[in-house]
Amino acid sequence: MAYDVLYIDHGNLESNNNFETLKQKVPYAVKQQEQIKTNPFWTVSSFADTSNFDFTWKPHIYEKNFKHCGKNQYGLADNGIVLQQNQNADLHINEHLKIQRLRKHEIFYVDTGSNTNFLQQLQETHNIKQTRFFDSWQKVAKRCANKMESEYCWIVPSDVDPNTIDFTWYPDFWETNYLHIFGSKWQMNSGVMFVHKDWLHDTNEFKYRNDFVVRGDSNAYDKFFLDFFDNNSKFSFKTFNTKVSMVRFFDNHLDTIKRLVEKSKTKYFWVLSGNCNYENFDFAWAPDEETYDHLHVFPSNNQVYGDTFFIDKHSFAIKSKDLVNFKHYETINFNKQQHVKRLGYDEFVIQNYNFAKAIKNSYQQSKTKYFWLTTSLAKEVDFKYDFAPDYWSPATIYTFGPDNDVMLVPKESGTWIHEQVYDYPHIQKRSNVATERTPMDVIFISYDEPNAEKHWQMLKDKCPRAKRVDKVKGQTEAYHAAANLSETEWFYAVFAKHEPIDSFHYDWQPDRLKSPCHYIFNGINEINKLEYGHSGVILYEKNLVLQTTDPGLDFTLSAKHDVVPIVSAINRFAYTPLMAWRTAFRECIKLKYDVDTTGDIEQKYRLKVWCSEGEGTNAEWCMRGANDAVEYMDSVDSNMDDLKKSYDFDWLINYFTNKYGEVND
């Protein structure tokens, strides 16, 4: 004997049609309990889908006195169809009873300020009531629960894809007093909620569900693509599978986004970069409720100050009104859920260390906003050219360690640079190791110095890679010989008078951001203890050495040069009276010339010390040479042709001999 069927009308839209469908299958189905004659009997909710249900099913004889409830596809106890007893009975949740529910429901469609791409679709299949988001999703749920006309309803935000919502879902029937909240891949609360009228008894009760995962609508919010008018932008634009609007990048992100606030037709909008690959990026992403009004930024490679933004336009308009530095924005959420791959940049390789010249020559050739610049003279390590520059700040030149032989250069820097990379105002030196350090050659230069062999051996013991130039007549010729011997772009010139010191290791590297120049290290004067660039080790730039064919008073100072305040050697120049006098005479010619032409106080002090202070062997000859230099300059009225004679060692010997005769060592 079949059991009677009692149909319970919950006031849902399809209730009457559903009853007629049930009657066709079970003609004895009724709506009034007084008409029920059997015990047990079936109760059928107007939300239940009875098309595949077997009403001939009967419980096992040992379970005939139980109240039987089935399960839905999620394994949840569903009372949509129940085998009831007239008397009180224990509940048995029966695995054999498969409960399905209708798909058409009362739905509150919540306008989140997005495009309403799925509204028409929902209106065709559901009873839609429209409302808007205000304050919080809990308040939205309360408002909808108070307005719903059926036993339960669904809340669907306008920024989700309803095709990913299973409207046949129903909770364990004893949990209808909860607000059931469904998450997305990215949110704990996607805004999709199941609300039963029982929840109104205590609206503090809620549960987060993962029975199915809601997906956002990837076209919910406006998207603006920043075009840099380069090859990367052309490639990037092809990586989208969604609608985007192309706009011009204005110098920096802050100013660009300010302009886009007025363009956006949706409450939120995306800002996307022409320097990124978006092939695997999920634009269905949406923020959690707590961060709705934040500025959301997604990293580009490992750059947290990325190029991909999700923005609340009303909040941004207020918070950015007087903002100057984008990094000082009040509420930034550095998102870690997704990252974007920054596209690569053009690469240029030079055969020298003149990076400033290379930038001037390369910036117009680059087809990308930035370009990599490296030198073939540096040996690369396992360096990945994936650094993503920070576009939140002014365009910056980034250099990579240990010696800045790898640079990432913005095109716009090319118009700034004239002589050195430092002409550009925005430079950041990174600690990332990009190359192995290449030591510069060390070349010992000697002529007739009595202490030459001793110092040469000391240098070889300390620095086995040292080479030697010996007995080359003429200072310019000796320097050129050293430059031709060098296999590196710079070389350390160590002179025969230099006694090496333990603390100097011949491993200092030239500054790649400067234009090529000579570097002068400090030396210690053995007689008067002055410590400055005179008779210190010099790191010569070989090309400048070879280009200097007609030097002025000093060979080194005749080309671009800089001073490095590191002590490099002790200057043992007073082995003989002639050496002491000659060294002092030459140096003080240059000091006196500086004092007379520039009035430099420091040079004036040094000249005074040379002329009046000294101790040790041949100290007197050192002071004589200094004073003779001052006297000579006055006698020739500082005529440059006469002063340049001091550069010639033969002239110096003749001058000394004529003045003092033969002097024994």
Layout of secondary structure:
Layout: E1 5-8, H1 15-25, E2 41-45, E3 67-71, E4 77-84, E5 91-98, E6 106-111, H2 119-125, E7 127-132, H3 137-147, E8 152-157, E9 179-184, E10 192-196, E11 206-214, E12 222-227, H4 231-237, E13 245-248, H5 253-261, E14 268-273, E15 276-277, E16 295-300, E17 303-312, H6 313-319, E18 332-334, E19 341-342, E20 346-350, H7 355-362, E21 370-375, E22 379-380, E23 397-401, E24 406-410, E25 427-433, E26 435-436, E27 441-446, H8 452-462, E28 467-470, H9 475-485, E29 490-495, E30 498-500, E31 518-525, E32 531-532, E33 538-541, H10 542-547, E34 561-571, H11 577-598, H12 601-612, H13 619-635, H14 640-643, H15 649-660
Helix pairs in contact: 11-12, 11-13, 12-13
Give a quick summary of the entry.
The protein is 23% helix and 28% strand.
Could you explain the architecture of this structure?
This protein has six domains: 5-98, no CATH class; 106-214, no CATH class; 222-342; 347-435, no CATH class; 439-573, Alpha-Beta Complex (Spore Coat Polysaccharide Biosynthesis Protein SpsA, Chain A), CATH 3.90.550.10; 576-665. 41% of the residues are buried. It is built from 15 helices and 34 strands. β1 (5-8), α1 and β2 (41-45) form a beta-alpha-beta unit. By secondary structure, the protein is of the alpha/beta class.
Spell out the key features of this protein.
665 residues, alpha/beta, 6 domains, eight-stranded mixed β-sheet, six-stranded mixed β-sheet, rod-shaped
